[in-house]
Amino acid sequence: MSQDAIAIALTTRLNTYSPPLFIQWPNEAASPDADVAFLSVAFLRGQPDNPAVGPGLTRHVGVFQINVHHPENTGEGPARRIADAIATLFAFGSSMTYGGVTVHVTRTAAVAQGFHDGAWYVVPVSVFYRADVYS
User: Which of 22, 32, 64, 110 might form a disulfide with 127, Cβ 3.0–4.6 angstroms?
Assistant: First the structure.
């Protein structure tokens, strides 16, 4: 349940990106338009921690991985600008809440070097997060 709330909080923030782009969600079939940029996402969940003595607090950490797919042969700039704008949505210190679970961005989002993948130039954006869940 907590992982669902974390995912919804993060994806709700991603859905505020403007102009809206098609998003390929995990384990969902998609056929994006070959001439239009799109995003794909993954939730790279880390090992939960129990930083308090005794039961009651579980700390969830992870990386919300967002890949910007841009048509090839358009230069690095367009994909990089989208990636930078998405990184700004998840600024260090920002937080978002869903279902009583608050997700904190724990460091500046990492915009990695792009790479070619078929007909796409892909720029990864890694958003590092933490959510403390009390039971």
Answer: 64
